[in-house]
Specification:
By secondary structure, the chain is an alpha/beta fold. Helix content is 38%, strand content 19%. The chain has a single domain, classed as HUPs (Rossmann fold, 3-Layer(aba) Sandwich). The strands form two sheets. Strands 1-2-3 form a three-stranded parallel beta sheet, sandwiched between helices. Strands 4-5 form a two-stranded parallel sheet. α1 links the parallel β1 and β2. The structure holds 4'-phosphopantetheine (PNS).
Amino acid sequence: MSQKTAIYPGFFDPITNGHLSIVNRGLQIFDNLVIAILNNPQKAPLFSINERIFMIKEAVKDKLNVEVDTFDGLLVDYAVKKNSNVILRGLRALSDFEYEFQMALMNRKLDRNIQSLFLMTDYKWFYTSSTIIKEAASFGGDVSGLVPEVVNCKLKEKFAPSKNT
Ligand code: PNS
């Protein structure tokens, strides 16, 4: 039987436990998952692409059928390159819906063979996002439990008070 691969794309700046919950649940449906980090030089991420790759690889190191990769350009083209026709996305509160709907329809217009599949984010992660986690961490807030340990450490490093101030 042929192996079924899904692409799980995103910016992952940084990866959170909400993302990991989608990865774990995606693996119950698909044989393989590619976590595809958008390498967009126009966006100014907190973490460099290499830092994001490192953190994701560390967070999924026990999962053999997960690949961590980067892409630029159109997501649908990347999916075809990876021999996949499924884009996996997590849906949190209703506020995600409009953006996700727009993106799914655009991807469908660009390539009708690509299917977008949405999994509801676990209720525990409903109101968390990389953005809000970064904001809390930037003011010294404790975000452990919301992100993998490697990310928690890296956030602390990033926002550690500078020694010469
Ligand atoms: O983590 P994010 O910011 O919600 O991820 C958004 C992402 C990377 C999935 C989306 O911006 C994307 O697919 N960009 C690639 C460019 C593309 O294919 N655009 C057309 C469809 S919107």
